[in-house]
Amino acid sequence: MSTSARSAEVTLEGELDISTLDHAQRRVEAAERIEPEVLVIDLTRLTFVDSSGVRLVLLADDRARAAGRRLGVRLGEGPALRVFQALGLLDKITVVPDAHEETASGSAAS
């Protein structure tokens, strides 16, 4: 988990399903406890995500809104993006570009 006074980021890797949900949930909750203004959950390194992972993000989004915080989700171009797209959730969450996209667009603008 990376943190600053204003933001925190949780990067999840591998598979996010019912068998790994508890670990992922603990990591997100630890980031929430530092009360960042913005929390980013990075799903770009996932090789698989099921409804448990979707629920994790949606509940984190609900908690962020209730706490007056913003939640951003990095989906990348892999399984996470496909699942959130298929469920029609891209307009329900704040999708942030992955670090590579931010670097590339920042370099192109210079």
Concise description?
This protein has four helices and five strands; from the N terminus they run E-E-H-E-H-E-H-E-H.
Explain what the structure shows.
The protein has 110 residues and is of the alpha/beta class. The chain has one domain: Transcription Regulator spoIIAA. Helices cover 44% and strands 29% of the residues. The protein has a five-stranded mixed beta sheet with strand order 1-2-3-4-5. α1 runs parallel beside α2. The chain is globular. The termini are far apart. The C terminus is likely disordered.
Task: Give the tags.
110 residues, disordered C terminus, single chain, five-stranded mixed sheet, Transcription Regulator spoIIAA
Q: Can you tell me the number of structural domains?
A: 1
* CATH fold-level label: Transcription Regulator spoIIAA
The CATH homologous superfamily name equals: STAS domain
First and last CA, distance: 29 Å
Tell me, what is the CATH class? Alpha Beta
Largest sheet: 5 strands, mixed
Average pLDDT metric: 89
Radius of gyration: 14 Å
User: Order of strands side by side in the largest beta sheet?
Assistant: 1-2-3-4-5
Order of helices and strands: EEHEHEHEH
Treating each run of at least 4 consecutive H or I residues as one helix, how many helices?
4
